[in-house]
Structure prediction request, 143 residues.
Amino acid sequence: MISPEYLAGLFDGEGCLYSAQCGKKGSRNFYLYAALTNTHLPVLKQVQIEYGGSVSRKIDKRRVEIAKARYNLVWSGNRQVEKLLNIIGPYLIIKKEQAELVLNEWLGKAEGVSHVPVTNEQKTLRQELHLKLQALKRIEFVQ
Prediction:
């Protein structure tokens, strides 16, 4: 069994919260993702069984002959990411601020049901939050 505390620690070190712009030109929108990358497939499979998401192999074509196989566990969309963050959020340290941004601003304000078009105002808000999330990833923590 993988505890929420263990998963939060794993996510703090090996995880990523991000948004990506998808869709056809003219109707592009930002979508929310959480990903966990690791070379140890058994632990990712166990996390998937207990917490959902989708596992795939990540191939680095430039280093295929020397690199270990890497795997991604991805939670895609508002519902999956929200469910994950509600479970591990209280235990996050490094990615706590990113998780709070996603929970409080993205999920709290950027309404929209899957497969239902969002308004231009919502698209603008998501774009602003996408930039905020990127900025949080650039913060250097020095002692």
In short: Residues 7 and 134 are 22 Å apart (CA to CA). Residues 4-137 form a domain with the Endonuclease I-creI fold (CATH 3.10.28.10).
